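Why run this: before we spend reagent on co-expression, it is cheaper to look at a predicted model of the complex and decide which construct boundaries make sense. The entries below are exactly what would go into the expression plan.
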Amino acid sequence: MASIKYDHVWKRFGDFAALKDLNLDIADQEFLVLVGPSGCGKTTALRCLAGLEEITEGNIMIGDRVVNDVPPKDRDIAMVFQSYALYPHMSVYDNMAFGLKLRKTPRAEIDARVKEAAEMLGIGQLLDRKPKALSGGQRQRVALGRAIVRHPSVFLMDEPLSNLDAKLRVQTRAEISKLHQRLKTTFIYVTHDQTEAMTMGTRIAVMRDGVLQQLDTPQTLYDHPANMFVAGFIGSPAMNFFEATLVRGDGKVLVDFGPFQLPVPPSRIDMIADHIGMPIFFGVRPEDIHDTHYVPRGVDDTARLMTMVNVVEPLGSEVYAYVENGGKEMVGRLDPRTSARTGQPFEVVIDMTKMHIFDRDTERALI
Amino acid sequence: MQQAKTLSARPARPARWLNRDRVIALLMISPSALAIAVFVYGFIAWTGYVSLTSWNSLATTSTFVGFDNYLSVFATGRFQTNIRNLIVFTAFFLLACLLIGLLLAVLVDSRIRFEGFFRSAYIFPMALSFIVTGVVWRWLFAPGNWPDDPTGINLLFKQLGLGFFQSAWITDTGVVPGWRVEGLRTRIGVPMAMIPVVVAAVWQMSGFVMAMYLAGLRGIPDEIKEAARVDGASEWQVFRTITLPLLQPITLSAVIILGHISLKIFDLIVTMTGGAPGNNTEVPGLYMYEITFKANKFAEGAAVAMVMLVVVALLVVPYLIYSRQTEVER
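The model came back. C-alpha cells follow.
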C-alpha cells in the first residue's frame, strides 16, 4: 500500500510533450481515474508510473521513494493492460503464477495465492487453459488475477474494459470497484469513458493535451467543472454551450443570446459581476432543460424559452429532444411523458440556478 | 402474395457437384497437376522401381533384386562415411545458423541505426548460389604452404600475428575423436575438413534465419514483454521466459527449411571440396551423383536417392501435417 506523487512531471517524445508539468497527489488506498480523450497523456502518465517510460523532468514518488530510475520490476506495482497482454504460451495458472515464480515465492504459497485469486474472480475452472481458449471476459479476469496474486502496493489499469461488450463492461466495472474495496490498495485507472470514470473513481483527474485540467471528486467535476473542456467532457449528452453576453436590463442581469435573453438568478449575480457587459460562454446541461409541464419540484421555472423541435429521441426512461431557437440548438433530457414532437413548437424551462458561465478568452468557469 | 407464390412454385435446381465453376477450376489446375504428377511423382516412382532392379551398368536391365542395392550401399564404408559427414554437417550447420541468426535478429531488432543496411547486408549472401559460395570459400580456406607461405585465411592469420590459428582447413584429413566401432567401416567423429564447409554454409544461410527470427520478434506484442517487466522480470528473464518460447514456431520452421537444405546439400560441397580429402566431406547427394553418372550404377544411385527422400520426408512430412492442423485451427 502506498501513496503516489507526480511532482512537476514532463514527458517529451522528441519535440512533442506528452505530459506537461503534471502534478498529482494520490492518497494511499485511493481509486484515482485518469480520464481524457485519445492522446491526452493519460496512458503516458500511467506508463511513466509503471516505469515503462522514462520521464524527462520532475519526480515520481511511490510512498517516500523517488522511483525515476527504478526499473519496473522493483516498483512493486501490478498493471492490467488494455490488450490484457497474457503470455500466450502459458496456462492461466502459469500466467498468474509468473510474477511470484520470478520472486522465488515458495511453491505452496504460489499455489494458495493463485487459487485464492482465481476463486475470487470465478476462474477456478480455467486454470489449465491457454489464453487463446478463453473468451474476452475470461482473459480480462486472468489479467486481473495476475495483478492480484502479487499483492502489489499499487494497481495500474490501462483501459481494461475497452475490449469487452457493453453488458460485460458494466458488470466488470462494478466488480473492479468491489475489488478495490476488498483489497484496500491504491488503484490508478485510465479510461476515455467518462461513465467509467464517474462510477468508479473516488477522485478523477481530467487531462487534455498533456495538461491536468481538474482533479476532484466525480460530483464536484459534474457540478463545478473548472473550465469548458471539463464541462463538456463530463456528462452525457454533453453540456450545451452558447456564445452570449451578460447585460443589465429591467434592474436584472440577463444572458443575452441575440435572438433571446434569459435572466440570471439573483443568487448568482455576485459571481459574475465583473463580467457584466462582456462576452462569455454560457453552458447548461441537458438534464437542466425541462418540459414546462413536467418541471421537477423545487426547480425555478421562471426562465422559459419557446423553441422548435428538430429531433426527438425516446429512450424509454427519458427523452432526448434537440430543440432550437434562432439558430441556437440545444439538447434537453426530458420527462418521458413530454409532448415534444418533431417539427412542432415547444416551450422549455431552463434551470438557470444550474447554469455555467465561462470566460470567453480563458474558457475558465466563472460559476 | 402473388409474387411469393410464383417464387415458391419454381422448382429448386438440384445442386450438381460438377458445376460450371468446378469445371473451370479443374481445367485451370490440370496442366500443372499433370506435370507434377509425371515429372515429380512419376519420376520418384520410377527411381523407386529402378532401386529395386539390377540396373548397375550401362546395359539396361530390369531384373528385380529386392532391397539388394540398399544393403550393398549401406555395407560400403564410403556410404557410412557419407552418413557420418551428413550428420555432422547438419548438426553444426543447424546449430550455428540458429544461434547466429537469432543473435543477429536480436541485435537488428534493438532499434539500431542503419538497421535497414545491416538487415540487407546479413541477408545478401542468400542471394548467391551455393556454387559461388563454394568457389569463394574454397579460395579462402585453401591453406597454401602454411605456416610460411600461406594463402587465404591462413595468410590473414599470419599477417595479423595470429599464426597459431593457421590450419590445414579443407585439406585436413583428421577425424576427431575418430572412434572405431565394431561393425562400422568408418570412424566416428567430426571430420575436420567439414568445419570450413559448415562455415561457408552458415555464412550463406544465417542471414535468412535472421530474417525469420526478426519477423518473429516483430510479431511479439510489446505489451506482453512490458507485462513481464512489470511482473518482475529482468531483461534476460523476459528474453528467456517470454521471447524465446514465443519464437518456437519460427525455430521449428527454420529447422525444417535448413534441415532439408542440409540433407540434400550437393553444390556447395562439389565446388568447395569435391568430397575430399578422402571422402571426409562427401555426402549422400554427391555419392549418388558419383555412382550414378560416373560409375553408371543406376540402381545403387537410385537406392541412395530413395534413402535421401525418406530421410527428408521424415523431417518435412510431420511439419506439413502440423502446419495443416494449425491452419485449420486458425
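Chain B is about 65% helix and 5% strand. The CA atoms of residues 191 and 280 of chain B lie 6 Å apart. Bring this page to Monday's planning discussion.
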